[in-house]
Design goal:
It is a single chain. It contains 14 helices and seven strands. By secondary structure, the chain is of the alpha+beta class. The radius of gyration is 29 Å and the shape is elongated.
Length: 415
């Protein structure tokens, strides 16, 4: 049973109301505290308005518990649901457990500091026991919300690890089979070359081409394995930013020889937006798209082309993003194969003997884009060919978070 101190404290209701009234100002303090003390880019900590919609609601939940401790914070309460959503958001952003604990440490400190300052200006009589009870309820409320966020975050993290382990086992099986076949083809062709000295030139040329083709495919396979196993911290190029046109130009340079061999005109559409992008991300994605366009060119067409265009666009939620599209006039993608295009090891034209590969290229693009908070997709024009695109978020302008909080606070104050 709750004691009289818990239920009749005259201070609790006043503190709760003041806490609700100041929730946006407290949110702003919380954001500023993290940005000042944690070595994270503020645009990574607070990438969208979604987080700003969560924090005031969490503070409302704390205020409710401070005012009415008899109403225990249960798993079915809205504040717990919001805390769990925050855990999911942090998981998507790639945060670790320490960063989440640090965030709540800051939030708890700000709320206790607010209580300490506020209670000195409240005329209602209050005993020491009642004051300690309010502080205890505040601590318990923050702790329960933190546990809800952390529990959901760890649940998602464990699920993610299990999925990655299963994909890794499947990946190892496919790659081992792929490399084994390539090595067998190289050994077989080179063995025949070494045993038959007076082989006709045309036959020798075919065997040499088998060796070269399989060696090239093995090299591509190894490069893909290295890309998939690399993390942002392992790759210093992830931290190098260049102009968009420069990154696209480098990707084109890397496939120039293959494009010339296939008689494909690769061209960059003028008007690329003058913005900075991650060199590694753009080069990787565009190069894979270009390689696919070259592989699946329509050999029956006299003129074969690939066009790369870039634009700065706005999402449905109002966020800015850079979009790069790679369009070709190749053979296109069969309608029944389009849904699985970006899955690992999937090949839309499995029966084409002249086209070889592991089916990793598009999945690498998708995973790379999503790791940056973006997305990858394909479009299929009615007049043939394909368009493969990526969209990556642009860095939000400094001060946008703070301006929104001020605007919200002013609106509430006027109302």
């Amino acid at each position: 049973m709750a004691s009289r101190v818990d239920t009749d404290c005259p201070l609790a209701g006043v503190l709760a109301e003041k806490l609700r009234f100041a929730r946006h100002d407290l949110t702003a303090q919380w954001l500023a505290r993290i940005a000042a003390r944690v070595s994270l880019d503020p645009n990574r900590v607070f990438p969208t308005n979604q987080l700003l919609d969560h924090v005031p609601l969490l503070i409302d939940g704390v205020a409710d518990y401070v005012k009415n401790p008899a109403a225990e914070i249960g798993v079915d309460m809205p504040v717990v649901a919001k805390a769990m959503e925050l855990g999911e958001l942090r998981h998507k952003q790639g945060f670790d457990a320490y960063e989440i604990l640090k965030e709540y440490e800051f939030l708890g400190g700000i709320l206790f500091e607010f209580f300490t300052t506020t209670v000195q200006n409240i005329p209602e009589p209050c005993g020491k026991g009642e004051l300690m009870a309010c502080g205890s309820r505040l601590y318990r409320a923050v702790t329960i919300i933190q546990q809800s966020t952390m529990t959901h975050f760890l649940l998602l993290a464990d699920k993610h690890v299990a999925e990655r382990e299963e994909r890794l086992r499947a990946f190892n099986r496919v790659i081992s089979h792929e490399i084994k076949n390539r090595v067998g083809a190289i050994l077989g062709a080179s063995g025949v070359l070494s045993e038959i000295a007076d082989m006709p030139p045309n036959k020798r040329g075919e065997l040499v081409e088998i060796v070269l083709r399989n060696a090239r495919e093995m090299r591509n396979t190894v490069e893909n394995v290295l890309i998939l196993s690399r993390t942002d911290k392992d790759d210093p190029r992830q931290h190098r930013h260049v102009r968009l046109a420069e990154a696209v130009g480098e990707a084109v340079r890397q496939v120039r020889e293959a494009a010339q061999g296939a008689h494909i005109d690769v061209r960059i559409v003028p008007g690329m937006p003058d913005i900075e992008v991650s060199a590694a991300v753009i080069e990787l994605c565009v190069k894979n798209y270009l390689s696919n366009a070259i592989k699946y060119a329509d050999r029956t067409k006299r003129e074969r082309f690939v066009e790369i265009s870039g634009s700065e666009e706005e999402t449905e939620s109002g966020e800015r993003q850079v979009v790069v599209r790679v369009r070709d006039n190749g053979i296109g993608v069969p309608t029944d194969k389009r849904e699985k295009l970006f899955e690992r090891f999937f090949r839309a034209h499995e029966g084409m003997n002249a086209v070889e590969g592991t089916g990793l290229g598009l999945s690498i693009v998708r995973e790379t884009a999503e790791s940056q908070g973006g997305r990858a997709w394909a479009e299929h024009p009615d007049d043939g060919g394909s368009i493969f695109a990526i969209a990556l978020p642009l860095r939000r302008k400094a001060g946008a978070v703070e301006r929104r909080l001020v605007e919200t606070s002013n609106t509430e104050a006027r109302s």
